[in-house]
Amino acid sequence: MKIYSFDPVIQSNPRALILGSMPGKRSLEMQQYYAHPQNAFWCIMGELFGFAADLPYPQRLDRLTERGIALWDVLHSCERAGSLDTAIQMEVPNDLPGLLAGRLGIRLICCNGGKSWSAFHRHILPRLSAERLAALELRRLPSTSPANARLSYAQKLELWQSVLEDVI
């Protein structure tokens, strides 16, 4: 089944961009980033940026963008049954080089999990200019997905905090 990502969540002067791979089934149904109730993303962001993880979705997005955080996915579309990144096929990337070209304030890109990281390196990295790439810090962070059970919530929080501390 062919599925499509969402539009980026971005304001005028972001400093960091958090990239997922492709929204899962629950997120696609609800049309919200990280909508699965067991995904740790909103709990982690709430702890780092001082808001309740159960705020209404538009307010959670506002809290992130007010702090200079943008959200998007590496992939524009793909074919996938279910929600697992391992099932993704026929990848079509988003125009991240275009997004980054107009937003020079973005200095940090955080890939939420291994699939986001590998898709970024395969599809996006070769399309970035040497100058733009030199101005970026690229970081792979542990997936906040409930499928990533090898790390505890506390371990995920600590790793995310260590990378985003300059943005906080």
At a glance:
By secondary structure, the chain is of the alpha/beta class. The protein is built from 7 helices and 7 strands; from the N terminus they run ββαααβββαβααβα.
Core attributes:
168 residues; alpha/beta; Uracil-DNA Glycosylase, subunit E; four-stranded parallel β-sheet; 7 helices; 7 strands; 35% helix
Describe the structure.
- By secondary structure, this protein is α/β, with parallel strands linked by helices.
- It has a single domain, classed as 3-Layer(aba) Sandwich (Uracil-DNA Glycosylase, subunit E), CATH 3.40.470.10.
- Helix content is 35%, strand content 20%.
- The chain has helices at 25-30, 41-49, 57-66, 96-101, 114-124, 130-134, 153-164, and strands spanning 2-4, 16-20, 69-73, 75-79, 89-93, 108-112, 137-141.
- The strands form two sheets. A four-stranded parallel sheet has the order 3-2-6-7.
- The N and C termini lie far apart (38 Å).
- 31% of the residues are buried.
Question: Topology, pairings included?
Answer:
Layout: E1 2-4, E2 16-20, H1 25-30, H2 41-49, H3 57-66, E3 69-73, E4 75-79, E5 89-93, H4 96-101, E6 108-112, H5 114-124, H6 130-134, E7 137-141, H7 153-164
Parallel strand pairs: 2-3, 2-6, 6-7
Antiparallel strand pairs: 1-4, 4-5
Helix content: 25-40%
Shape: globular
Average pLDDT level? 94
Count of domain modules: 1
Q: Which CATH first-tier class would you pick? A: Alpha Beta
